[in-house]
Amino acid sequence: MTENGSRLDAGLQAEVRPDRSGPAGNVIVITGPSGVGKGTVVEKLVQRVPHLVRSVSVTTRSMRPGEKEGRDYFFVSPQEFERRKAEGSLLESAEFAGCQYGTPRAWVEERLRGQDDVLLVIEVQGAMQVRQRMPEAVLVFLSPPSLAELEARLTGRGTEGPEKIALRLDKARQELAERRHFHYEVVNDDLDAAVDNLAHIIYAERLRIRNSAR
Ligand code: ADP
Ligand code: 5GP
Q1: How many angstroms does the Cα of residue 32 sit away from the middle of ligand 2?
Q2: 74-84, pLDDT tens digit by residue?
Q3: Residue 23 has what pLDDT?
Q4: CA 40 to ligand 1 centroid distance, Å
Q5: 126 CB under 6 A from ligand 2?
Q6: Which residues form the pocket of ligand 1, taking CB atoms under 6 Å from any ligand atom?
Q7: 214: CA distance to ligand 2 center in Å?
Q8: Which atom of ligand 2 is nearest the CA belonging to 99?
């Protein structure tokens, strides 16, 4: 966090949503190509901004080394995923690079009623479903400084082999073309600057007059 960032947060925390008996929290969707730094940025953001929580998704992908059930994802079989989707317990869902991903609806709705803002860190198709089902959701696109830097981050993370990286880069080109559907774009070049910018968006949205034009 920059020095300016800490001053901003200290000043704003007391003022965050002055009437907390008022409307529910905001849904903030963060989308961006795999490897752009969504996980890294969001981890810092939830530590910094009060009343901000991250939704944990359900996926059919296999667990990566270092990941934990219930913290990074709920890892389920394709059959279990289909069952949850069919019973309507997923707020949105999508296939990405051959695996299924979805957001558990009940947890998100409960936290919103409790006046927390809920971050959904999801890919583009899911973001478009949220936009349709919850028009008041705030949609943020996290961009890489360049495709070359994105490839370097995916390679550096070391969680996918060259074939899967190629698939994710292909997908990234398609996703970058969808930026126009989002309300905000934040470039994740300098990590602290990206976290600062996201915090500003979240604080500004808390002060927005509901039902006003954005
Ligand atoms: P995502 O969740 O979008 O797939 P990650 O958060 O896993 O991406 O980040 C991918 C890689 O890029 C990680 O190795 C991470 O440490 C690195 N990274 C994230 N943000 C930055 C940044 N601003 N500058 C340089 N490297 C970064
Ligand atoms: P990864 O396999 O790298 O964890 O995630 C792959 C992609 O799926 C990322 O773009 C991630 O944001 C997205 N994703 C994770 N959870 C969900 C979800 O619940 N719904 C949707 N639509 N996408 C998700």
Answers
A1: 10
A2: 999 999 999 99
A3: 63
A4: 6
A5: yes
A6: 32, 34-40, 153, 156-157, 188, 191
A7: 26
A8: 2
pLDDT in tens, 1-17: 455 555 556 655 544 55
The whole-angstrom separation of Cα 142 and Cα 191 is 11
Closest protein CA for atom 20 of ligand 2 = 102
User: Any idea which ligand is nearest the CA of 97?
Assistant: 2
Domains in the chain and their CATH numbers?
18-207 (3.40.50.300)
Which mutation among 28, 38, 57, 171 tests ligand 2's pocket best, with the greatest number of atoms within 8 A of CB? 57
Q: What is the pLDDT of residue 160?
A: 87
**What φ, ψ does residue 51 adopt, rounded to 5°?**
55, 40
Q: 3-state SS string over 21-57?
A: CCCCCCEEEEECCCCCCHHHHHHHHHHHCCCEEECCE
Q: How confident is the model at residue 210 (pLDDT cuts 50, 70, 90)?
A: confident
Q: How many angstroms separate the CA atoms of 141 and 182, rounded?
A: 6
**Which ligand 1 atom sits nearest the alpha carbon of residue 156?**
14
Q: How far apart are CA 65 and CA 54, in angstroms?
A: 21
Write down the pLDDT at residue 9: 65
pLDDT mean over 66-94 = 97
Percent of the chain with pLDDT over 90: 79
